[in-house]
Each structure stands twice: as structure tokens, then as C-alpha cells.
Automatic annotation (TrEMBL):
Sorted UniProt keywords: Copper
Similarity comment text for this entry: Belongs to the CsoR family.
The protein, known as: Metal-sensitive transcriptional regulator
PANTHER family: COPPER-SENSING TRANSCRIPTIONAL REPRESSOR RICR, TRANSCRIPTIONAL REPRESSOR FRMR-RELATED
Superkingdom of this protein's organism: Bacteria
CDD domains in UniProt: CsoR-like_DUF156 (cd10148)
Taxonomic lineage: Bacteria, Bacillati, Actinomycetota, Actinomycetes, Kitasatosporales
Species of origin: Streptomyces prasinosporus
Amino acid sequence: MTTTPAAPRHVHERHTEAPGCADNKADHLARLHKIEGQVRGISRMVTDDRYCIDVLTQISAASHALQEVALGLLDDHVRGCVTDAARTDAAHAEEKLVELNATLRRALRL
């Protein structure tokens, strides 16, 4: 008898409704494009043998900018996806809270 393996835990079902970040998509993308430019600039700094502390300062700024994007997406998710689930279906809300908890644990490395 052949069994089908269960889907890996990191694979999530695709949702057909618009994600919570859809309203702020343009803002998130604009920030990410800006960060992309920062990272290219850091690469040029390394290529040009710029002073190490200056490169590290720019890396820190890019890292902080990525964290701000992540916090914005997290806020969108809680205000959109989690709140909507809580209003419509208790079981779905519980799934969203478990997912959020796991995501925060990964992000915080707990």
C-alpha cells in the first residue's frame, strides 16, 4: 500500500481572498525597491574598497529598513487576515493565531 506523504509544515494553503497587505502593497514595494538600491550601493562600496565602518553603517541601515517592512507586513496581517478570521470563523482565527505565533518565534529566534 502506498501512502501520500503529508505536505511539509512550511507549505501553506493558498488563499483566494486578497491578503491583508494588499492595501499597502505599493508602499511595501516602494520601500523594498529603495532597499534594493541600498544593497546595490553597499556592493559598490565593497567593490570600491570603501572604509569598513562606512560599509557596516550602510548594512545596518538596510537591515533596519527591512525590519520596518517586516513590521508593516506584520501589522497588515494582524489588522487584516487575523482580524477578519476572528470575525468570521473561530477555528480559522485559531489557525491564524498559531501561524502568527510560529512566525514571531522564527523572527525572534525563540
